[in-house]
């Protein structure tokens, strides 16, 4: 198939006929259809967003519903910005902004997330680097990029979803590899872009967040070619910046909504924290960092730590007046509004939650603008200062009153142990010479793919290929499939002929 003249519409492999996906008039709309029609997208219905839906019924978001909401917000932002001549002209100079590209990238941005949400991502990264010897480890964004470029096996071809350059570039929240691209690597900038810095205790391990493994580096370069000379190598495209901002907005709103629904987010605790800081903000600002740390769980101390963290990490936008106004607005909307009455499942309660979400979504979408010279820790598309602070406070509420709970930690430690045991069991299976012919076909294919990607003189080429194949295989499971597979490998399952669904 002849490549289009527009370099943004170029595909990796020229684009083969893909049923509904190629009936769309726009190549970017075709990308959206390819993503939605893929098994990778359907899998997200069984993958945790924050807590497993199995423990909370249908009340919480999973990765699929999260992706749909991110796409909804992202498209609304793109349409609003491109309708404004001033924003549209600047976006064109920066490489373009198409609502179909933004929506497609938003739908695809979480395809690589493994079972059990961000916990699974951290566990797989540790196992990949420390147990399986993979320098790139595991990263959910890089895994998403790997999926759309190389891991959908069709006979001898490994063409992924064959998306256009613009959509692949828009998926790259972090357009660098873990260690060495681009050169100089953005983790060496001061300050470094968001996600580019390595962990303080292990700076040599490379960036904490990155958009592609080295095996997909050529694909990343091709995707970014149309933007060369327009934006720095380490900076997001405008479309990626919209997707990233929309992800933050959706996360901030629907996680608060989720934990209100299931009764975890309690008015009293949130009110005590926000109100105490408002009453004593002068005292909190005056005390030393060691005194603040010693304050422990004293109401108001945690949000003061957030204020200081914002100044430390994001001095380019952190502002005390905007922060205080954000605390007040969240207190009014959340403490005196949404949390004032417990969620009882009634139609009235559902409508109240819907109005809360719609009100915040509109507020954030309307506050997004485009800047020609963003700070290193920002993108070309960003929230206005007041709303940026409000997002930080909403995310703080979620982190402080949900993620820090001991009962959630107990649940997640069990999931972490499960993933570790599953990876070990699959590794032992791959090393068993008598079982080679009975390996799951998908795992066998992924070993072949990973081996073909590595240079023939790569040290321990077979071992590294097996390690990457195990990571790819586990990352493509749903929460339920991961649990079922470990049950089967541990001899706990009695459903012999129905366990095949996890293979």
UniProtKB/TrEMBL annotation:
Keywords: Hydrolase. Signal peptide: none annotated. Residues 177-209 are annotated as: Disordered. Residues 63-252 form the HD domain. It comes from the Bacteria. InterPro entries: dGTPase (IPR006261), dGTPase-like (IPR050135), HD/PDEase_dom (IPR003607), HD_domain (IPR006674), PHydrolase_assoc_dom (IPR026875). Residues 178-191 have a biased composition (Basic and acidic residues). NCBIfam families: dGTP_triPase (TIGR01353). This is DNTP triphosphohydrolase. It comes from Micromonospora halotolerans. The lineage of its organism: Bacteria, Bacillati, Actinomycetota, Actinomycetes, Micromonosporales.
């Amino acid at each position: 198939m002849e490549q289009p003249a527009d370099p943004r519409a170029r595909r990796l492999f020229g684009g083969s006929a893909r049923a509904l996906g190629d009936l769309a008039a726009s190549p970017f709309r075709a990308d959206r259809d390819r993503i939605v029609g893929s098994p990778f997208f359907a899998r997200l219905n069984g993958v945790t967003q924050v807590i497993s839906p199995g423990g909370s019924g249908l009340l919480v978001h999973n990765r699929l519903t999260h992706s749909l909401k991110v796409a909804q917000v992202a498209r609304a932002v793109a349409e609003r910005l491109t309708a404004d001549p001033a924003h549209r002209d600047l976006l064109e100079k920066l490489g373009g902004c198409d609502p179909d590209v933004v929506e497609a990238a938003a739908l695809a941005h979480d395809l690589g997330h493994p079972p059990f949400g961000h916990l699974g991502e951290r566990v797989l990264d540790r196992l990949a680097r420390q147990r399986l010897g993979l320098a790139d480890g595991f990263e959910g964004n890089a895994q998403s990029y790997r999926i759309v470029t190389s891991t959908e096996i069709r006979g001898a071809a490994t063409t992924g979803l064959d998306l256009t350059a613009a959509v692949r570039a828009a998926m790259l929240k972090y357009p660098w590899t873990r260690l060495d691209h681009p050169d100089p690597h953005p983790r060496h900038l001061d300050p470094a872009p968001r996600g580019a810095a390595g962990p303080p205790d292990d700076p040599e391990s490379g960036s904490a967040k990155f958009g592609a493994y080295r095996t997909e580096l050529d694909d990343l370069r091709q995707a970014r070619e149309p933007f060369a000379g327009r934006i720095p190598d380490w900076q997001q495209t405008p479309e990626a910046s919209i997707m990233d901002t929309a992800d933050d907005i959706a996360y901030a709103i629907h996680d608060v909504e989720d934990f209100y629904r299931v009764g975890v987010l309690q008015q009293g605790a949130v009110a005590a924290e926000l109100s105490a800081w408002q009453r004593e903000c002068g005292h909190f600002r005056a005390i030393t960092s060691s005194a603040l740390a010693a304050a422990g769980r004293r109401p108001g101390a945690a949000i003061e730590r957030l204020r200081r963290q914002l100044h430390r990490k994001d001095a380019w936008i952190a502002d005390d007046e905007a922060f205080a106004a954000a605390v007040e607005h969240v207190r009014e909307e959340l403490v005196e509004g949404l949390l004032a009455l417990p969620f009882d499942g009634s139609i009235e309660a559902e409508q109240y939650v819907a109005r809360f979400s719609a009100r915040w979504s509109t507020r954030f979408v309307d506050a997004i603008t485009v800047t020609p010279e963003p700070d290193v820790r920002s993108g070309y598309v960003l929230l206005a200062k007041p709303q940026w602070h409000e997002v930080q406070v909403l995310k703080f509420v979620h982190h402080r009153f949900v993620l820090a709970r001991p009962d959630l930690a107990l649940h997640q430690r069990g999931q972490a142990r499960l993933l570790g045991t599953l990876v070990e069991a699959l590794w032992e299976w791959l090393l068993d010479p008598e079982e080679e012919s009975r390996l799951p076909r998908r795992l066998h294919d992924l070993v072949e793919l990973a081996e073909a990607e590595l240079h023939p003189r790569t040290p321990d080429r077979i071992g590294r290929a097996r390690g990457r194949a195990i990571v790819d295989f586990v990352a493509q499971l749903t929460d339920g499939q991961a649990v079922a597979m470990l049950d089967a490998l541990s001899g706990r399952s009695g459903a012999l002929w129905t366990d095949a669904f996890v293979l």
